[in-house]
Amino acid sequence: SCACHLLTISVSNLAFEIIAKIEQIQTNLSGVFEVSNTFIPKTAMITSLFDEGNLLRLVEYIACVVANIQVFERIAICYESSSGLLSAIVNEIAEILNIAPGHILFLPHRKRPIFEELFSVGKLLPEGTVVAVANADIAFDASFAKISALDLTTTIAVLSRKDISKDGKRAHLIRLSNGY
Q1: pLDDT tier at 179 (50, 70, 90 boundaries)?
Q2: Torsion angle, alpha carbons of 32, 35, 135, 131, to 10
Q3: CA-based nearest residue to 162, from 152, 175, 172, 176
Q4: Which of 84, 138, 141, 178 lies at a CB distance of 3.0 to 4.6 Å from 34, suitable for a disulfide?
Q5: Residue 180 confidence (pLDDT)
Q6: In the predicted structure, residue 1 carries a pLDDT above the cut 60
Q7: pTM over 0.70
Q8: Sign (positive/negative) of CA torsion 85, 167, 99, 140?
Q9: Contact residues for 134 (Cβ-Cβ < 8 A; gap 6+)
Q10: What backbone torsions phi and psi does residue 80 show, to the nearest 5 degrees?
């Protein structure tokens, strides 16, 4: 005998699931992930996204956007739209979380942008904005505020990251090796 469950998938249901997912990850990683109570002024994250057909992967991407909304004053998404699903979910989340207009910027793209194009988006932001250009599946935490202690007029900071386990309960630092 087989049990069958019919699921209702809607933009609203996905939005609530994504919010719950990032809250669960932040709770599970509370000793590692420093939750931000408010965004860091004069900061922006620039990333690229598309209407991912794999809903599980799409949820991961948008969960990172939700985490980053808590850290950055602005999130600029170079968006390769095919179905509009990603923007519909993000807009629903923005409504649920009462996110101010202009906090999330969608910039239409016909194809996946190269990093040079992502960096050029920084020219659209107010002067003095600290910009993080990152893949969409990266979630920053409140420790990003420490970057403001650096003199960024002549410095580019390269950040490492922690990789989160599939169950969302552990994280370990990714160590970059130069071959030595």
Answers
A1: very low
A2: -120
A3: 172
A4: 141
A5: 41
A6: no
A7: yes
A8: negative
A9: 45, 46, 47, 140
A10: -95, 100
